[in-house]
Amino acid sequence: MTKFKACFFVPFYPLIKGGAEYQSKIIAQELAKKGYEIVFISGGHEKEKVSFYDGFKVYELVIDTAIKARFFLYKDFMCRVHKIIKDEAPILIYQRILNTFTFHLSKFAKQQQIPFILHIADNYSVEFSKKLRSSLKRYLFRKILETSPSIICQTDYQISKINEWGYEPMAKIPNMHPEIIDERIERNIKRILWIGNAREVKQLELFLQLPALLKNDKYQFHVIGKLPDNQYGKGLLEKIKSCQNLTYHGSKENTFINSFLQTTGVLVNTSVSEGFSNTFIQAWMCGTPVVALNSDPDGLMTHHNLGIDCQGNFDLLPKAISNIIGNKDFLIQSNKIKQSAICLFSTEVNVFKLIELIKKIKSSNG
Q: Glycosyltransferase subfamily 4-like N-terminal domain: which residues (predicted)?
């Protein structure tokens, strides 16, 4: 195919870590293999510079978070972004996270007649309460839709929320992951794992109740992730220290996480809600079932027997964990989970969907 340049407006992984950042990096790597040139515009750094990482040109930008900057919706920052885009002259702009920056970026893309793909990364972005403080969020989203972006969703739920605005997303592409090499590590099905950056919405404190509730079952509990540097994080650390039979590993790279998942019996997710968690896919790619408190994206977990959704009932968590670990056919089911994950979430399958969408956008724009 003819090589062309796209600007990815998203923090660059692993300089800045997060689920959306990781997904964008995966997509960029796959597109690069197909002959695309990807330039990253990455906000959130301590110093501004242009760098080259993993074959990508990365504009590392500082974001002023002062009250004045927030009041004007980061207009000065976005002016710098717009200049970079003009200098790079891409034929496509891709943003993974719907946020305040999208308001300026979508408007600029329309003015410059550059196709703009907005890839929804979580449910919160498309959920709007009727409270007064949500009025700005609703106003900005309405203005973004007026610029006619090409919207990609992760799930049918996200599509339905955007449909409520009378707008039709162009595609549904779930999170994806490269196939994980089977390291043939011995699996300890009594090992129970929680992964995440422990923000309040992740509700790690609920997971920390499980060692006491399941203390008679000889389970081994593990937590991987960063604790916030605030009172909430300090409280979590104290609870972790008081837990028996629990190991806290701190923040770890994906290579460690993938290896660890292959030795684990179940991944537990206690978040208030999830869009489409990367950790779910990583677990399934490793043949590890998931027990979630509040999430079953598109019903895939139930339909493909990938785990159990407790539908918000914390009392069901211990029983769900015991049911999965006590399954006499656990290893057979584990292999089925891995094969299903490869079919559903491989990068090859899902980047192909994105390439087809890009072709459609290009043809409609001449």
A: 27-155
pLDDT in tens, 309-350: 999 999 999 999 999 999 999 999 999 999 999 999 999 889
Structure tokens, 288: 């590890």
Helix/strand/coil for 218: coil
pTM more than 0.90:
no
**144 Ramachandran zone, left/alpha/beta (phi>0; psi -120 to 50):** alpha
Q: At residue 2, does pLDDT exceed 70? A: no
Check: CB of residue 308 under 8 Å from CB of residue 320.
yes
Instruction: Show the tokens assigned to 179.
Output: 């196939």
The encoded tokens of residue 290 equal: 């998931």
Q: Tokens 């692993």 sit at which residue?
A: 14
DSSP 81-138: HHHHHHHH--SEEEESS-SHHHHHHHHHHHHHT--EEEE---SGGG---SSGGGHHHH
| Alpha-carbon span 126 to 118, nearest angstrom | 12
Minimal CA–CA distance to 127: which of 105, 150, 148, 98?
Answer: 98
Instruction: Summarize pLDDT for 156-214 with one digit per residue, the tens.
Output: 999 999 999 999 999 999 999 988 888 878 899 999 999 999 999 999 999 999 999 99
The Cα 101–Cα 293 span in angstroms is: 31
pLDDT of residue 366: 61
Q: How far apart are the first and last CA of the chain?
A: 16
- Closest among 257, 254, 260 to 220, alpha carbons compared: 260
Distance CA 38, CA 120 (A): 19
Helix and strand element counts for the chain (H, E)? 15, 14
Cα(272)–Cα(63) distance, integer angstroms: 28
Helix 330-345 to helix 347-364 angle, to the nearest 10 degrees? 20
